[in-house]
Write a structure and sequence with these properties.
- There is one protein chain.
- Helix 1 runs parallel beside helix 8, helix 3 packs antiparallel against helix 4 and helix 3 crosses helix 6.
- This protein is an alpha/beta fold and 480 residues long.
- Strands 1-2-3-4-5 form a five-stranded mixed barrel.
- Strand 12 and strand 13 form a beta hairpin.
- It starts with a strand and ends in a 9-residue tail after the last helix.
- It has three domains: 225 residues, FAD/NAD(P)-binding domain, CATH 3.50.50.60; 114 residues, FAD/NAD(P)-binding domain, CATH 3.50.50.60; 105 residues, FAD/NAD-linked reductase, C-terminal dimerisation domain (Enolase-like, domain 1, 2-Layer Sandwich), CATH 3.30.390.30.
- The protein is built from 13 helices and 21 strands.
């Protein structure tokens, strides 16, 4: 029989939702353990989940590196900067990315130590009675007993039955972060966040990138005008995005260094084939709940393996909670952050809360895409009366001075109360600007409130000020 240790809170998963829950619970005076199975490239435990190890952080490192390189060939000349023989050292770029990941995974381990969170490295499984069995990487087993267990197992890449990951020619986001050289021809299945971001990285470095998207509409979740503008800019950059393209078969052919991936898909013109050197499958993610629950726990999964919870992330089983990618809602790291903190505070008897209506979305392409709240399409479907105001970056002094005039900002407000219902942006730096909308909506502010707040000149944030003024047709820097 394995040893049993007692805690106030046991968290399964050290990703964004899990480590936030663990640290906040420890701050509130509880004895906390956190279990995580992930290993880094060096074979050592690496906290931080998909987001930190193979998602948000490493992809942004590569996006920034590739953007610097792209700008040398496509933007610097506008500033009067010239150079000769620019080259990209892919190994050095990937090494920089790995160093950043290692820095931050180590940072979480240091935070655990500072907050007295006990880390267990291995696979945790919930047993009946709030017991968690841990199979540690060293082969030993330990049982943890707690008054409260937080399930934060995260998510895994969805693998298509006809495009199995081989880690070399057909890859998920993990493989696409670690190419040793720029592929001449890169195929991407899925025009979502991962596909567009990683497709952009390798396109900027010289790859011919073709994105195959099964849906007929581009970025259907985003505002239609934003999606249209983004698609136009991606086309200018040379990204070949094919909509309504349903992939049915993939085959790795050839031998040695001459191997390639032949992809068969169907679109409005019938069956097509296209050949790539590498294929990234980015069709979404699924809750990593397999093996998480022993028989008899009482915790329920839906047909997609998502853990069922109420509005407060409680599973309905006394003392068992679930947060992050393994529960309903958007699979976003910052959503997991807030759920983890909220659950820790609820366990402590405090009023933990997450407002799902004000969670921002960001796609870190060039231009960036961001939004919060409802789109015009959604408001029309709901029958909600609304009014809009927009402002183009091309009329914004700071954006033009930066040689970044693409995109616009749109403010959507209720037609009768003027309350801000959504903020939709495409352009330079909008991943930061979107939070003006988040803050305004959290405090139930109006478009007039945004219009009457003094914004520094010249700044990118003025775009929001002018868009808010345009809601009531009083914009100064554009025709109403």
């Amino acid at each position: 029989m394995s040893e049993q240790l007692n805690f106030d809170v046991v968290v399964i998963g050290g990703g964004p939702a899990g480590y936030h829950a663990a640290i906040r619970a420890a701050q509130l005076g509880m004895k906390v353990a956190c279990i995580d199975a992930a290993l880094g490239k060096d074979g050592k435990p690496a906290l931080g989940g998909t987001c930190l190890r193979v998602g948000c952080i490493p992809s942004k490192a590569l996006l920034d590196s590739s953007r610097q390189y792209w700008n040398m060939g496509h933007l610097f000349d506008q500033h009067g900067i010239s150079f000769k023989d620019a080259k990209m050292d892919v190994a050095k770029m990937v090494g920089r990315k790995d160093a950043i990941v290692k820095q931050f995974t180590g940072g979480i381990a240091a935070l655990f130590k500072a907050n007295k969170v006990t880390a267990f490295y291995g696979f945790g499984q919930l047993q009946p009675g709030n017991v968690v069995k841990v199979k540690q990487h060293d082969g030993s087993e330990v049982e943890l007993k707690a008054a409260n267990v937080v399930l934060a197992a995260g998510s895994d890449s969805i693998e298509l039955p006809f495009a199995k990951f081989d880690g070399e020619y057909i890859v998920d986001n993990v493989g696409a972060l670690d190419f040793t050289e720029v592929p001449k021809r890169l195929g991407v299945i899925g025009a979502g966040v991962i596909g567009l971001e990683l497709g952009s990285v390798w396109k900027r470095l010289g790859a011919e990138v073709t994105v195959l998207e099964a849906l007929p509409d581009f970025l259907a979740a985003a505002d239609a005008e934003v999606a249209k503008t983004a698609a136009r800019e991606f086309k200018k950059q040379g990204l070949d995005i094919r909509l309504g393209a349903k992939v049915s078969r993939t085959e790795v052919t050839g031998k040695g260094k001459k191997k390639e991936v032949v992809v068969t898909y169907t679109d409005k013109d019938g069956e097509q084939t296209i050949t790539f050197d590498k294929l990234l499958v980015a069709v979404g993610r699924r809750a990593a709940s397999r093996g998480l629950l022993a028989e008899g726990t009482g915790v329920k999964l839906d047909q997609r393996g998502v853990i069922e919870v109420d509005a407060h992330c409680h599973t309905g089983v006394d003392g068992v909670w679930a947060v992050g990618d393994c529960v309903r809602g958007p699979m976003l790291a910052h959503k997991g952050f807030e759920e983890g903190i909220a659950v820790a505070e609820l366990i402590a008897g405090l009023p933990g809360h997450v407002n799902y209506d004000t969670i921002p979305w960001v796609i870190y392409t060039e231009p960036e895409i961001a939004w919060v709240g409802k789109t015009e399409q959604q408001l029309k479907e709901d029958g909600t009366p609304y009014k809009t105001g927009s402002f183009p970056f091309a009329a914004l002094g700071r954006a033009v001075a930066m040689a970044e005039p693409a995109g616009f900002v749109k403010v959507i407000a209720h037609a009768e109360t003027d309350r801000v219902l959504g903020l939709h942006l495409v352009g330079v730096g909008v991943s930061e600007l979107v939070h003006e909308g988040v803050l305004t909506m959290e405090f139930k502010g109006s478009a007039d409130d945004l219009a009457r707040i003094c914004h520094a000149h010249p700044t990118l944030s003025e775009s929001i000020h002018d868009a808010a003024m345009a809601v009531d047709k009083r914009a100064i820097h554009k025709a109403n």
